Amino acid sequence: MRTIDLSPLYRSFIGSDHLASMIDAASRQEKQQTYPPYNIELLDEDKYRITMAVAGFAKEDVVIEVQENTLKVLGTKESGSDTKNQKSKNESERKFLHKGISERNFERKFQLGDNVKVLTADLQNGLLHIDLERVVPEAQKAKRIEIGSKLYENE
């Protein structure tokens, strides 16, 4: 992926520095984050699904938070400690010939559009599914105006 120079946006568009900052942050973040892999699906006109491959993580290991327009998914695996049960102790002592399933901690952020709400989250077969929906308020929906009709009663 090429690096995009956004300095002309900062110089040319007064008041758009927030937009340029978001684009700049997104391009930097995308380069760094490759784990865990994810898909974003369009299920319906206003319904979406994010599917993340989180093999090795249980429901208790994953935290999903929404703050303002940011969806944050955190995955935390505890490393072996003395306070864990015997099964966890044995798992930390395993010797791998090849370890292709990465069970490292992660934090993945998604910028949500205006009026996008998280509906549900489910973890099945190593895949985390997060369903989203864009709910457009009635005041922002398009309205058809019939020709010859009065918009206001006072007219």
Structure explained in plain terms:
This protein is of the alpha+beta class and 155 residues long. The chain has two domains: 32 residues; 106 residues, Immunoglobulin-like (Sandwich). 19% of the residues lie in helices and 32% in strands. The strands form two sheets. The protein has a four-stranded antiparallel sheet, with no helix packed on it. A three-stranded antiparallel sheet has the order 3-4-5, with no helix packed on it. Strand 1 and strand 2 form a beta hairpin. It starts with 6 loop residues before the first helix and ends in a 21-residue tail after the last strand. 6% of the residues are buried. About 5% of the residues have low confidence. This is Hsp20 family protein. It comes from Glaciecola petra. InterPro entries: A-crystallin/Hsp20_dom (IPR002068), ACD_IbpA/B (IPR037913), HSP20-like_chaperone (IPR008978). Keywords: Stress response.
